[in-house]
């Protein structure tokens, strides 16, 4: 992930910490990708309709949102390293429960456990990643998120191949959880032992020091932007398989490739995002990402052939890939208590996740195709990003 020159920017301890954070990003991506491509199979096993599945996912997202609000307090009490280790273990337990679930309630318990734990893990690993990135001459946040996407590709390919080969979801997820638990041993030993920055007393519980209007606006913009980014990413990842299976009648194995295609695009965009960021600058990269992602989402939603749909999801993944790395890095650098701005960002994302699965599910269960349903939900978010980019261009000081 780094060249010899870039490694020279870091001490041996920091290099090991960066490697550990990188592995954790990969693990996080693999956890979700291990079962998302098999959601059509899970829906059939649990006897749920599309809209019922959407409601179930929404309930899990609500639980995850409530839990994520405690992230700053947990990190303040345990530190990023110990909080990350403990909550990753909970994620893997949730993954096994999803594999064993035979009723909607048991599935919801496992799914909720994964989301609850991810709220803390996501904040902790992005804080450590941002601290390490700031010590280097070349940024690394895009590549760290690229490893998350690479984890989704690996997990998605495993899930799709397992489905095509007739391997049970139970067996697949137990094996995956055991492998990721082994990776956690490496991660835990290398993470930074001491957190950076200070927890300002007047920044507790989400209160921002020096309560200026600009600071509040920045937090609101982070939350809204997080909602936009989460929506386009979530819909593309969770509903790509349904776009192929419901609209084209493809097999479960082929349907899973929709998720893989999107994840491949995300991975490519993030692995090269830091180099492009250095050359183009933050503003130009963001505007280009809006155009690319909007084009890809439109093709994926309305193309009349499976191959074009896969191509559209790949293009959308490239554009969407840079949204969250930028937002997380901005939030991690926000002054005040560790994790507060990141929690605002995640809260905006989680609030949209409460609406998105149900909205797409209800629309897809109507006379609309899955493609049309996804377009109705995602394209307005791209328009919102375009508006934010326009306002930023007109008011660069903000």
Itemize the secondary structure elements and their pairings:
Blueprint: H1 4-7, H2 12-33, H3 39-46, H4 50-68, H5 71-100, H6 104-134, H7 141-165, H8 169-190, H9 213-248, H10 252-280, H11 282-302, H12 306-320, H13 323-332, H14 340-365, H15 370-394
Could you characterize what this model shows?
- The chain has 398 residues and is mainly alpha-helical.
- It has a single domain (11-394), classed as Growth Hormone, Chain: A, CATH 1.20.1250.20.
- It has 15 helices and no strands.
- The protein has helices spanning 4-7, 12-33, 39-46, 50-68, 71-100, 104-134, 141-165, 169-190, 213-248, 252-280, 282-302, 306-320, 323-332, 340-365, 370-394.
- The longest helix has 36 residues, at 213-248.
- It is globular, with a radius of gyration of 20 Å.
Proportion in helices: over 70%
> Tell me, what is the CATH class?
Mainly Alpha
CATH topology heading? Growth Hormone, Chain: A
Q: Could you tell me the mean pLDDT?
A: 83
Cα(first) to Cα(last) distance is: 33 Å
Spell out the helices and strands N to C: HHHHHHHHHHHHHHH
Low-pLDDT windows of residues: 201-210
Beta-strand portion reads under 5%
Give the count of structural domains. Answer: 1
Structural Rg:
20 Å
CATH architecture: Up-down Bundle
CATH homologous superfamily placement: MFS general substrate transporter like domains
Largest sheet, strands/sense/barrel:
none
Estimated structural class: mainly alpha
SS elements, strand count: 0
Global outline: globular
Q: How large is the count of helical segments?
A: 15
């Amino acid at each position: 992930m780094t060249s010899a020159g870039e490694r020279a920017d870091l001490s041996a301890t920091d290099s090991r910490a960066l490697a550990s954070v990188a592995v954790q990003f990969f693990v996080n991506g693999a956890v979700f990708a291990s079962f998302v491509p098999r959601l059509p199979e899970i829906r059939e096993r649990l006897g749920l309709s599309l809209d019922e599945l959407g409601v179930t996912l929404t309930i899990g997202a609500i639980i995850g949102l409530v839990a994520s609000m405690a992230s700053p307090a947990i990190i303040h009490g345990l530190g990023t390293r110990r909080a990350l280790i403990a909550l990753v273990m909970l994620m893997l337990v949730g993954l096994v429960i999803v594999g064993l679930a035979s009723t909607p309630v048991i599935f919801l318990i496992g799914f909720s456990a994964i989301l609850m734990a991810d709220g803390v893990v996501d904040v902790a690993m992005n804080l450590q990643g941002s601290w390490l990135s700031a010590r280097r001459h070349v940024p690394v946040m895009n590549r760290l998120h690229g490893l998350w996407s690479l984890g989704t590709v690996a997990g998605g390919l495993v899930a799709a191949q397992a489905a095509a080969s007739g391997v049970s979801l139970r067996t697949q997820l137990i094996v995956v959880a055991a492998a990721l638990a082994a990776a956690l041993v490496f991660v835990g030993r290398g993470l930074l032992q001491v957190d950076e920055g200070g927890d300002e007393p007047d920044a507790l519980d989400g209160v921002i020091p020096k309560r200026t209007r600009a600071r509040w606006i920045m937090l609101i913009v982070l939350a809204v932007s997080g909602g936009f980014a989460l929506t386009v990413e979530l819909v593309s990842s969770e509903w790509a398989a349904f776009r192929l299976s419901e609209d084209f009648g493809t097999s479960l194995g082929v349907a899973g490739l929709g998720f893989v295609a999107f994840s491949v695009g995300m991975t490519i965009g993030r692995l090269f995002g830091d180099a492009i960021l250095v050359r183009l600058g933050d503003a130009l990269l963001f505007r280009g990402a809006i155009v690319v992602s909007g084009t890809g989402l439109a093709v994926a939603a309305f193309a009349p052939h499976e191959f074009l749909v896969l191509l559209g999801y790949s293009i959308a993944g490239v554009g969407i890939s840079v949204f969250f790395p930028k937002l997380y890095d901005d939030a991690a650098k926000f002054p005040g208590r560790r994790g507060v701005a990141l929690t605002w960002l995640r809260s905006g994302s989680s609030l949209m996740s409460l609406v998105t699965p149900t909205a797409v599910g209800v629309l897809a269960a109507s006379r609309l195709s899955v493609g049309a349903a996804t377009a109705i939900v995602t394209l307005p978010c791209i328009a919102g990003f375009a508006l934010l980019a326009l306002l930023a261009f007109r008011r660069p000081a903000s």
